[in-house]
Structures are given as C-alpha cells and as structure tokens.
Specification:
Layout (H helix, E strand, L loop, with lengths): L1 H13 L2 H7 L14 E7 L4 E8 L11 E7 L7 H14 L6 E5 L4 H4 L7 H6 L6 H19 L2 E10 L1 H12 L6 E5 L9 H4 L1 H4 L8 E7 L4 H15 L6 E7 L10 H12 L25
Parallel strand pairs: 3-4, 3-5, 5-6, 6-7, 7-8
Antiparallel strand pairs: 1-2, 2-4
Length: 300
C-alpha cells in the first residue's frame, strides 16, 4: 500500500508545473564575440616577413570627423601588449581624465634581434649573437607601418611610440638617433644596460637633437637597479643639459612599488594622462552629496 501511495505521489509531482519546469531545457542564451579592434596581416618588404598590425579606434571615431593622435605600440601583437594598452585607450572615454587616441600595435617576432643595436662589447656579442636589427625595424615603421596607418585613418599631428624593457630601449634609441620620426616617446623600464651602456657614454657626440624641438619623453623605472638604473641616470643627466624646448622629460620612479614585471600598465596610464590631458570637467562645483550636511537643490 505504501509503495502504491508513493508512486501516486511521484506521478502527481511529475505532472505538476514545478516539475515540468525543472525538466524543461534551459532557456537559449545568445552569445556574441567581443571585438576590440582590427587585426591586419601585414607583409613587410623591409623585414621580408609578415607581421600583425593591430588597430584600436577611440569611441565615437565612426561618428566624428575628428583627427586623433596615434600611439604606436611596440610588442603590439594580440598575444603581447596590444589588448591591455587598447584598454587604456578605452579608459580615456570612460574617465574623462585624458583624451582619445588611436592605438596601433606592431608585432615583434624576435625582440632581441629587432629592438637592439649591434653591440660593441664582446660579452654582449657572445650572449646575443642575433642582435642588431633596430635600424631595420625602424625602417619598417617609417616606410611601411606609418604610411599604412596615415593613409587609412584620420590621424592627428602628433605621433607617439611606447615600449617596455627592450622595446623601451628601442624607444630611447629612436629619440636619440631619429627624433623626427615621432613626437612623443614613452620608455618604461628601458633596458639601458645594453652594450654595457656604451651608447649613453657618447651621447653628447652622437645624439641627433641639435635641431629638435617640442619633443616629449616619458621615462619610468621599477626596482631593477644596477646597470639599468645607471643607464637611466645617465640619460636623465644628458636630458638636463639640453636647451629648453628640445625635449620635455617626465620621470617617474616606481622603484619602491613596482618590479620589472609589474610596472608596465600603470606607468603607461600615467604616461597617457601626461601626454593627452583632457580639459577640466565642468561639473558646476562640488556636488551637494560630497558636502557634510548639505541638501540637494530644489526641483524645478
């Protein structure tokens, strides 16, 4: 008798709306891929290789006729630094604390080969036999990437280049050897230990800054110390000797708060806020809810 009652109860439950809802298939969930920009497969005749060039456009680009500064990002592949730096570009439209820009990520394949000058120190030649391709990579940027971007997009008057570590070394090397290629230079923890700092020892004779004006250099360092810090100190001393109006330097010391592995993202954000500040937000003064005891304004 108990078995029969149990089966009857179970049958009534399975026929109930609640049980039928449990047995129903889950509702359809519509998904869509998230797009962060456009990735081009770019064949370079200079490098005799195919590279990824990734482009992020600022919010509202398609609805305006504005022209925008361009940030050329070294190590800018999709599996490199493009996505998190493009995120900083998007943050500009959300925070109103710095202005919009186009971000162009340029992929590197062999950083030691492509971002370094040929060393003269035998130890470095032995340790890095593949090095020495910086001039060719700079030619790739000058003759192929920049014209490709400027032909297709509404670019503004200023170009910036950003890189960290060996890419930061390339940024500094570009400023000193071909300063007219970009207007703004962002070097984060640059590997200025390269070639036992020999290029820095000859700066007064070799740097091509004589006719330069209105350039900006953002320089940041973490807790690396050693020959890297010494190289940065030499570069800062050289910049301090330059006449006013050539290169404006901002130096951020993160040695107490960041390592070589953790410095990049927040230093890059600081650089963008400095380079492209937005006009002050006109909010009509301090809102009432930020003032102790204040009342909201009367409704109209």
């Amino acid at each position: 008798m108990k078995i029969a009652q149990t089966l009857l109860a179970l049958g009534l439950f399975l026929a109930s709306p609640a049980a039928m809802a449990l047995q129903a298939s889950p509702p359809e969930v519509e998904g869509a891929r998230i797009e962060i920009g456009t990735s081009y497969r770019f064949h370079s005749f200079v490098l005799d290789d195919t590279r990824e060039v990734n482009v992020w456009l600022p919010v509202g680009y398609d609805k305006s006729q504005d022209r925008y500064p361009v940030l050329y990002l070294l190590d800018g592949g999709l599996d490199q630094d493009f996505i998190h730096i493009a995120g900083l570009g998007h943050l500009a439209s959300l925070s109103w604390t710095y202005g919009p820009m186009i971000v162009v990520g340029v992929q590197t394949n062999d950083r030691r080969a492509e971002l370094t000058s040929r060393p003269t120190d035998s130890r470095y030649l032995s340790a890095f036999p593949e090095s020495g391709g910086a001039d060719k990579f700079r030619q790739f940027l000058r003759e192929e990437v920049i014209p490709f971007v400027e032909k297709r997009l509404r670019t503004g008057k200023r170009r910036a280049i950003m890189g960290e570590s060996l890419a930061g070394l390339f940024v500094v090397d570009t400023l000193l050897s071909e300063p007219g290629l970009f207007d703004d230079y962002v070097a984060i923890s640059p590997s200025l230990w390269w070639d036992d700092r020999r290029p820095l020892a000859a700066l007064d004779r070799t740097a091509r800054l004589k006719d330069v004006k209105d350039k900006r250099l953002y320089l940041a360092v973490g807790d690396e110390g050693g020959t890297m810090q010494d190289g940065i100190d030499r570069l800062r001393a050289f910049m301090a000797r330059q006449p006013a109006g050539r290169v404006t330097l901002r130096y951020d010391d993160f040695s107490k708060s960041a390592s070589h592995a953790t410095i990049y993202h927040h230093a890059a954000e600081d650089a963008l806020r400095w380079l492209y500040p937005a006009p002050p937000y006109e909010g009509g003064g301090t809102p009432w809810f930020m003032i102790e005891g204040a009342l909201p304004p009367p409704a109209n």
